[in-house]
Amino acid sequence: MLEVIIIDDEPKSITSLEWELTNFSSEITVLATFTNPLEAISYLKNNHIDCVFLDIEMPQMDGFQFLDLVQNRDFAVVFTTAYDQYAINAIKEKALDYLLKPIDSDDLKITIQKIIDFKNSANLKNSLEESIISFSKLTNKPNKKIAIPVDGKLVFLKTDDIIYCESDGNYCSIYLENNEKLFITKKLKEVDELLKSDCFYRVHNSYLINLEKVKEYFKTDGYVVLNNRKKIPVSRNRKNNFLDKI
């Protein structure tokens, strides 16, 4: 099943495309529709999709500006527009397809097959990545290297390079000793499993810290200061476990 969203400032265009998608193919579910692209960005932070059908000319921002604001794009993009002069830019944005309004049924058939192929290819790639990640987790060496999927590649990090991780809905930011920040498409819970080590502890729903990087703990205010001077809150219900581990 393909899960998609539609972004278009014209409600009639959304209704038309949604009807075509849901009535034309039993393999597609339209999870949500948006006339406001900013609302779509918020939605994508907490929801996984296979494809976005994206209008180009919108009053708040155009489709290309929208994509610039989306971090770690792991879904297919199909531009929908009444104008054909944006094709080159669509190619540059690595769009899966480009549909001219009014959308032709035969063109839509081809597009749907492209989305299916894209998803299958992504699933195979993810399967290979997960195998490598699982293998790296089996290593028992001190300060072992962990495979982290970042923006279409695997980055191998030593656990000691990581200071802390911060949740961002369905995504996570990893902060490193060299001041670099990695943004990945995994929940904090998944990163916790990946880094499974006595050195890491989830002190808060939104934070996983490297205990070796803790510099100070302020009991009254309930937060730690890490080596990079970052203040991280410690949840009340995790304070005792944190102190035991530290």
Give structural notes.
- The chain starts with a strand and ends with a helix.
- The relative contact order is 0.09.
- 34% of the residues lie in helices and 32% in strands.
- It has 7 helices and 15 strands.
- By secondary structure, it is of the alpha/beta class.
- The longest helix is centred in the middle third of the chain and has 34 residues, at 105-138.
- The protein folds into 2 domains: 2-127, 3-Layer(aba) Sandwich (Rossmann fold), CATH 3.40.50; 140-245, OB fold (Dihydrolipoamide Acetyltransferase, E2P) (Beta Barrel).
- The mean pLDDT is 85.
- It has helices spanning 11-24, 37-46, 63-68, 87-92, 105-138, 188-194, 239-245, and strands at residues 2-7, 28-34, 51-55, 76-81, 97-100, 145-150, 153-158, 162-168, 171-176, 181-184, 200-204, 207-210, 214-218, 223-226, 231-233.
- It has a 5-stranded parallel beta sheet with strand order 2-1-3-4-5.
